[in-house]
Protein: Gp37Gp68 family protein
Amino acid sequence: MTTVSKIEWTERTWNPTVGCTKVSPGCKHCYAEGMAARLQAMRTPGYENGFVLTLLPQRLDDPLRRRVPTTYFVNSMSDLFHEAVPFDYIAQVFDTIGRAHWHTFQILTKRADRMAAFFQGRAAPRNAWLGVSVEDRHYGVPRIDHLRQVPAAIRFLSVEPLLEDVGGLELAGIDWVIVGGESGPKARPMRQEWVDAIRAQCEAAGVAFFFKQWGGWGADGVKRAKKHNGRELHGRTWDQMPAAAVGA
Structure:
């Protein structure tokens, strides 16, 4: 089963695993955890264990059944490189990705070291975009060096939720940067100057920049509903995508 996504930078989600555990401040208000609880209460197949890490091998072939070329966010409800996911299962996921060559797959992790370890001696399919979360300096920024070790056609950063000024970023080997603020009733604020600094670095390095959302706090520093804060930065939307396509 794959699902249409409301995430601005993808089209559908595919979750061959569900569930996760928290590893850094970016996980504090995990949207997937709350959603898993709701899906469990609704008796949705796959969520019988709630947010406990669960492998769902029955979903491995789902993208092969969809013939329309699609961009998939892999494991929106989990982390493919979680310590409880065996490497042989991760290999099965990437086998599907390689066979479904007409699709594009976006894989995002906070376990960047484990992702780098998995790809030692392995090549990533060209239709797999690999990324890491970068929410702060202490936990997020060091993941970028691990990502650079991965032989991927597209490497990207999800700087969301942006929790502080992340300083100077080494963007060599990075193709795409997504920035966004946190949503939800307990959202932590994101300041415009933090976003501006990242956008300027992307422009200088020739890296595509995508501004996803303000989240629960507006550019003016006022907390309000996400829909009222919008996606504009300095009066425009920033929807740049990496200059690559499947099969390039």
User: Anything to note?
Assistant: The domain at 2-229 is CATH 3.20.20 (TIM Barrel).
